[in-house]
Amino acid sequence: MSEQHAYRATIDWRLGEGESFVGNRYSRRHQWHFDGGVSVPASAAPGVVPVPLSDPAAVDPEEAFVAALSSCHMLFFLAYAAKQGHAVRRYLDEAVGVMGRNPQGRIAMLTVTLRPRVEWDGAAPSADAIEALHERAHHACYIANSVTTDVRIEPAPPARA
To answer: What residues contact 156, with CB distance under 8 A and at least 6 apart?
Structure first.
Protein backbone atom coordinates (compact mmCIF):
# COMPACT_ATOMS: atom_id res chain seq x y z
CA MET A 1 0.00 0.00 0.00
CA SER A 2 1.79 3.11 -1.18
CA GLU A 3 -0.80 5.74 -0.45
CA GLN A 4 -2.26 6.80 2.85
CA HIS A 5 -5.83 6.01 3.83
CA ALA A 6 -7.85 7.59 6.63
CA TYR A 7 -10.21 5.55 8.81
CA ARG A 8 -12.85 7.23 10.93
CA ALA A 9 -14.91 6.38 13.95
CA THR A 10 -17.18 8.67 15.91
CA ILE A 11 -17.35 8.06 19.65
CA ASP A 12 -20.45 9.52 21.34
CA TRP A 13 -20.78 9.69 25.15
CA ARG A 14 -23.26 11.84 27.08
CA LEU A 15 -23.77 12.44 30.77
CA GLY A 16 -26.98 10.76 31.86
CA GLU A 17 -29.85 12.37 33.73
CA GLY A 18 -29.05 12.54 37.44
CA GLU A 19 -25.47 11.33 37.05
CA SER A 20 -22.59 13.01 38.88
CA PHE A 21 -19.60 13.55 36.62
CA VAL A 22 -17.34 15.25 39.17
CA GLY A 23 -18.44 12.67 41.78
CA ASN A 24 -17.26 9.91 39.39
CA ARG A 25 -20.77 8.38 39.37
CA TYR A 26 -21.52 8.41 35.68
CA SER A 27 -22.10 5.68 33.14
CA ARG A 28 -19.27 4.77 30.80
CA ARG A 29 -21.76 3.50 28.19
CA HIS A 30 -21.33 5.16 24.82
CA GLN A 31 -21.69 4.48 21.08
CA TRP A 32 -19.16 3.82 18.36
CA HIS A 33 -20.37 4.97 14.94
CA PHE A 34 -18.55 3.84 11.80
CA ASP A 35 -18.63 5.30 8.31
CA GLY A 36 -20.56 2.34 6.88
CA GLY A 37 -23.51 3.16 9.14
CA VAL A 38 -22.90 0.58 11.85
CA SER A 39 -23.26 1.66 15.47
CA VAL A 40 -21.86 -0.43 18.29
CA PRO A 41 -22.71 -0.10 21.97
CA ALA A 42 -19.47 0.36 23.89
CA SER A 43 -18.43 0.75 27.51
CA ALA A 44 -15.51 0.56 29.85
CA ALA A 45 -14.66 -3.03 30.73
CA PRO A 46 -16.55 -4.21 33.83
CA GLY A 47 -13.19 -5.35 35.24
CA VAL A 48 -12.02 -1.74 35.10
CA VAL A 49 -15.22 0.15 35.96
CA PRO A 50 -17.76 -1.83 38.00
CA VAL A 51 -21.35 -2.39 36.90
CA PRO A 52 -23.68 -0.40 36.84
CA LEU A 53 -21.26 2.32 35.69
CA SER A 54 -20.13 -0.01 32.89
CA ASP A 55 -22.18 -2.26 30.63
CA PRO A 56 -21.02 -5.89 30.31
CA ALA A 57 -23.24 -6.34 27.22
CA ALA A 58 -21.32 -3.63 25.32
CA VAL A 59 -17.95 -3.91 23.59
CA ASP A 60 -15.06 -2.50 25.55
CA PRO A 61 -11.86 -1.09 24.01
CA GLU A 62 -9.80 -4.07 25.18
CA GLU A 63 -12.15 -6.55 23.45
CA ALA A 64 -12.16 -4.38 20.33
CA PHE A 65 -8.35 -4.38 20.30
CA VAL A 66 -8.24 -8.19 20.44
CA ALA A 67 -10.98 -8.47 17.80
CA ALA A 68 -9.19 -6.03 15.48
CA LEU A 69 -5.97 -8.06 15.64
CA SER A 70 -7.83 -11.32 15.06
CA SER A 71 -9.94 -9.96 12.21
CA CYS A 72 -6.95 -8.41 10.45
CA HIS A 73 -4.98 -11.66 10.68
CA MET A 74 -7.96 -13.67 9.41
CA LEU A 75 -8.55 -11.42 6.40
CA PHE A 76 -4.94 -11.75 5.26
CA PHE A 77 -4.93 -15.51 5.96
CA LEU A 78 -8.06 -16.00 3.84
CA ALA A 79 -6.66 -13.87 1.00
CA TYR A 80 -3.39 -15.80 0.92
CA ALA A 81 -5.12 -19.18 1.19
CA ALA A 82 -7.40 -18.29 -1.74
CA LYS A 83 -4.47 -17.09 -3.87
CA GLN A 84 -2.77 -20.44 -3.27
CA GLY A 85 -5.92 -22.38 -4.20
CA HIS A 86 -6.71 -23.67 -0.69
CA ALA A 87 -10.47 -23.69 -0.06
CA VAL A 88 -11.46 -22.54 3.41
CA ARG A 89 -14.97 -23.35 4.63
CA ARG A 90 -14.78 -21.76 8.07
CA TYR A 91 -12.33 -19.78 10.16
CA LEU A 92 -13.00 -19.53 13.89
CA ASP A 93 -10.68 -17.73 16.29
CA GLU A 94 -11.23 -17.56 20.04
CA ALA A 95 -8.58 -14.91 20.59
CA VAL A 96 -7.47 -13.87 24.09
CA GLY A 97 -5.75 -10.68 25.21
CA VAL A 98 -3.93 -10.42 28.55
CA MET A 99 -3.53 -7.09 30.33
CA GLY A 100 -0.84 -6.43 32.89
CA ARG A 101 2.05 -4.12 33.68
CA ASN A 102 4.63 -3.64 30.96
CA PRO A 103 8.37 -3.19 31.72
CA GLN A 104 7.77 0.55 32.19
CA GLY A 105 5.20 -0.23 34.90
CA ARG A 106 2.22 0.93 32.81
CA ILE A 107 -0.91 -1.16 32.31
CA ALA A 108 -0.91 -2.48 28.76
CA MET A 109 -2.15 -5.34 26.63
CA LEU A 110 0.86 -7.62 27.09
CA THR A 111 -0.10 -10.48 24.81
CA VAL A 112 -2.78 -11.35 22.34
CA THR A 113 -3.01 -15.00 21.42
CA LEU A 114 -4.89 -15.92 18.27
CA ARG A 115 -6.13 -19.50 18.18
CA PRO A 116 -7.49 -19.90 14.67
CA ARG A 117 -9.34 -23.08 13.83
CA VAL A 118 -9.67 -23.53 10.09
CA GLU A 119 -12.06 -25.91 8.37
CA TRP A 120 -10.94 -26.74 4.86
CA ASP A 121 -13.18 -27.67 1.98
CA GLY A 122 -11.45 -30.80 0.77
CA ALA A 123 -7.84 -31.61 1.49
CA ALA A 124 -6.09 -29.39 3.99
CA PRO A 125 -2.68 -27.97 3.09
CA SER A 126 0.32 -29.45 4.88
CA ALA A 127 1.11 -28.29 8.41
CA ASP A 128 4.12 -26.41 7.03
CA ALA A 129 1.96 -24.67 4.41
CA ILE A 130 -0.59 -23.66 7.05
CA GLU A 131 2.16 -22.33 9.31
CA ALA A 132 3.56 -20.34 6.37
CA LEU A 133 0.10 -18.87 5.64
CA HIS A 134 -0.25 -17.75 9.27
CA GLU A 135 3.27 -16.31 9.32
CA ARG A 136 2.66 -14.38 6.11
CA ALA A 137 -0.72 -13.12 7.38
CA HIS A 138 0.83 -12.05 10.69
CA HIS A 139 3.56 -10.02 8.99
CA ALA A 140 1.06 -8.41 6.61
CA CYS A 141 -1.54 -7.47 9.26
CA TYR A 142 -1.64 -3.68 9.56
CA ILE A 143 -2.94 -3.83 13.11
CA ALA A 144 -0.23 -6.21 14.33
CA ASN A 145 2.37 -4.00 12.63
CA SER A 146 1.00 -1.01 14.55
CA VAL A 147 1.28 -2.27 18.12
CA THR A 148 4.00 -3.33 20.56
CA THR A 149 1.86 -6.12 22.03
CA ASP A 150 3.27 -9.61 21.65
CA VAL A 151 0.84 -11.19 19.16
CA ARG A 152 1.04 -14.99 19.14
CA ILE A 153 -0.50 -17.37 16.64
CA GLU A 154 -1.47 -20.83 17.91
CA PRO A 155 -3.49 -22.45 15.12
CA ALA A 156 -5.57 -25.50 15.89
CA PRO A 157 -4.83 -28.65 13.88
CA PRO A 158 -6.50 -28.67 10.46
CA ALA A 159 -10.16 -29.61 10.43
CA ARG A 160 -11.45 -31.65 7.53
CA ALA A 161 -14.80 -31.61 5.82
So the answer is: 115, 116, 117, 118
CATH number for the domain harbouring residue 119: 3.30.300.20
The verdict on 9 and 54 lying in the same domain is yes
Global pTM value: 0.91
Domain hosting residue 141, numbered range: 61-153
How many domains would you assign to the chain? 2
pLDDT in tens, 115-135: 999 999 989 999 999 999 999
- Listed in sequence order, the residues at least 6 apart from 95 whose beta carbon sits closer than 8 Å to its beta carbon are 66, 67, 69, 70, 112, 113, 114, 115
Q: With H, G, I as helix, E, B as strand and everything else as coil, classify residue 160.
A: coil
